[in-house]
Design a protein that fits this description.
This protein is 82% helix and 0% strand. The chain has one domain (3-84). α1 (3-14) packs antiparallel against α2 (19-54). The chain has helices spanning 3-14, 19-54, 58-84.
Length: 91
C-alpha cells in the first residue's frame, strides 16, 4: 500500500474510533508522515546528485554537492530519530 493510501485509511478509521484507538491511529499517521519525510529527503539527495553530475560549471557542481550533502545529513538524522522510537525507517 502506498503512503497516501495508508494515510487515508488511518484518517477514515480515526473518525469511528474510541479514544485509545484514536491515539493509536494518530501515532500510526505520524509514523507514516515521518517515513514520508525520510523518503523525500532521500529523493532530494538523489536529485541534487544528478544535478551535480549533469553540470560543467564548477560553481553549479559545488552548490549541488552541498545541497546533496545537506539532504544526506537530514535523511540520516531523521532515520536515526525514527529508529530511536523503536521503529524501522525502512518500513
Amino acid at each position: 500500500m502506498i503512503i497516501a493510501d495508508q494515510y487515508y485509511c488511518h484518517a477514515v478509521e480515526l473518525q469511528m474510533a474510541t479514544w485509545v484507538e484514536r491515539w493509536q491511529a494518530h501515532w500510526e499517521i505520524k509514523q507514516v508522515e515521518f517515513l514520508w519525510c525520510i523518503h523525500s529527503f532521500i529523493k532530494m539527495q538523489q536529485v541534487w546528485i544528478n544535478l551535480a553530475d549533469s553540470h560543467a560549471i564548477l560553481e553549479h557542481i559545488a552548490y549541488a554537492q552541498q545541497k546533496a550533502a545537506m539532504y544526506t545529513r537530514t535523511a540520516r538524522d531523521a532515520q536515526a530519530k525514527f529508529s530511536a522510537t523503536g521503529q524501522s525507517p525502512r518500513a
